[in-house]
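Two proteins were folded this term; both appear here.
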Amino acid sequence: MGNVTIKKASVVVTVPRKDLIEVNETHDGVMFNFKGGGHFYVTDNSLPLTTKAQIKASFDMVKEGDILFNLDNYQHPASVNIQPIKK
């Protein structure tokens, strides 16, 4: 199923994708909620609304592969790496 990596400055969090339950936009950043009640709250008052929406949509719409959320890059905050199916 892949991994989710969240990067902000020197902090890098990588978890199996199945452990990230949801991504929510907040008034001052983004919150990542994990299985077992854990969460990772990124506060960034400069984070544009469109960037928050791209982050949430990437998680909600792409179900396969690895996702990298680079919260330092407002123009391209999410990237997906999907490996082709081997026959």
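Next, the second protein.
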Amino acid sequence: MVVIQYSADMKFAKLTPFNKGLAVILLAFIFLGGAIALIYILKWIFRSAFIQSLLMHERVHYFSEKIKNGIDKFLSSGNDVGDK
């Protein structure tokens, strides 16, 4: 078991008002940088998922229109032969 004893002659770094201000500014920049990075990461995730869903919707719409037009053409061509 390790016992740590406190001695009066131990020197600890004391924060002066200037150092405290510097520490607060540094922490604020770290916090804001993390928040900005988080916003960009979330933006990238949502944008990629949203654009993929839009592209998928366009493909489904294109193929459904193609099938619908093909069925209409097939059904109407049978009626046109009898009319001629």
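The radius of gyration is 35 Å. The chain has a mean pLDDT of 80. These notes refer to the second protein only.
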